[in-house]
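Support reply, case 0932

Customer input (verbatim):
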Amino acid sequence: MQLKTFSFGTAADPAGLDPALVSDVDSNRVSRQIFEGLVTADPTTGEPAPALATSWNSINNGLGYEFTLREKVKFQDGQPFNAAAVCMNFNRWFNYPVQKNPAAIPSAFKDLFRTFANDAKNSVYKSCTVDSEYKLTVSLNLVRTGFLDALTQAAFGIASPAALKSGTADVLDQRRDSYQLSKFALHPVGTGPYQLTSWQDGVVTLQQNPDYWGDKGQINTIKFITYQQSQARSQALLTGKIDGYDFVTPDNFDALVKRGLQVQQRDPFSVFYLGLNQQIPALADIKVRQAISIAIDKDALVKKFFIDGSTSTNQFIPPKLSGFNNQVPGAGYDREKARKLIKESSYRGAPLKFYYPLNVTRPYLPTPEKIYAEIAAELTAIGLNIKPVPVDWSDNYLEKVSSSGDHALHLLGLNGSYSDPDNFVGPLFGAPNAEFGPADSQLISKIERAKTLPDGAERSQAYQSINADIASTIPAIPIAFPISALALSSRVSSYPVSPVLNEVFNKITLNS
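Our regenerated output:
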């Protein structure tokens, strides 16, 4: 079989290639090729499926999991993959020095296990025990119903212990753009089908891992090439510079189809929202938050700026997951009532800084500048003094809006990474969060309880109640469940489209 090169247009450079410490879409797209976890998501059902683990058992009433590992697997640096390596990774995540590196912590580990070794008594994670060369047990202090589903995330990719050590993975003494990262994040080593060969000038190049245990596929070389603007990605595809790109925007969709390009849509599995920071005095007033929630014409936004099939929403959990609540109250769009609420509120005209990203496209946010302009105009119309704060995505926009600061409002979203309702509410509202201001301890307790409930009616009802609470207290305003799409040249015969973006390129087939 003739090996081939595949070029793919991305919206941004990776923020780093240590999957434990970055969660943005473009970083994960690359790390998915380099790393593998114990389990992966079945492309048809979304259920956990074998990857580096061939089988597993829940033990001790859900307080532990026994894993049997795949044998004869090597890391890309030639080191053996075994139970000791897996436990070293779990213990690395657990013992991460969160106080030294507060800007970059293993967020997926925190969402799943709650705390780290510095607060071990409150952690869900207890231990990882090597039972034999290819068997291990992960023990928990509390039940986590979505444990296996959560392990399908890119963040739980297993790294070479030798590379973690030589790359001082927990020491963020390197810098790319505005991101602090480790030497390991510049030279990642996993067990996946591809390994990094270079990363410079907006191009990440991967080569096929010659010792990969599974199907190596047709593609020998992958080039991820950054084009910040959607129009530039579209033009690169039309002129044959790339073979595909992600995050097709509505203004390019029809033109690509008319030119004979393939446009493949993903099932909606992300939520776009307007963040509200209650540390800002005006937004601590519930009447101001209520006014903002009904001042936005969500249906018009979706129709104007999102791909057909996207829907407006009053909640954060998508319809395909248990916990979606058909009874969540939606106040609807009512500009006059919003104006009245502002007049009745404590707001007296103070400027509200509204952060929005530049030079990026996200699966949940196709055209940030245009969407910002529309929402800002609607909020100005009800009497709010909006001050725009545009921030380049590469200037660490995510950190700026998720840390304590002067952001009153901001545009952001969440792309689902595994099939569990907690994936959509836990990371946002399940722990104190500087993105939204003071913590809602009652909501946190309800989310923590829901995580422990077995699948079934009681768990579904718990998440429905959580949805209703969020709609009532308005820490953020969900706006849309967007459809994302990617465009491919005729050279591509098949592409592993995944709503959770678990798209590994050894599964791509190309026409001869």
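We compared this against your earlier run and they match. Two observations from our side: The first strand starts at residue 4 and ends at 10. The chain has 16 helices and 23 strands. Please reopen the case if you see a mismatch on your end.
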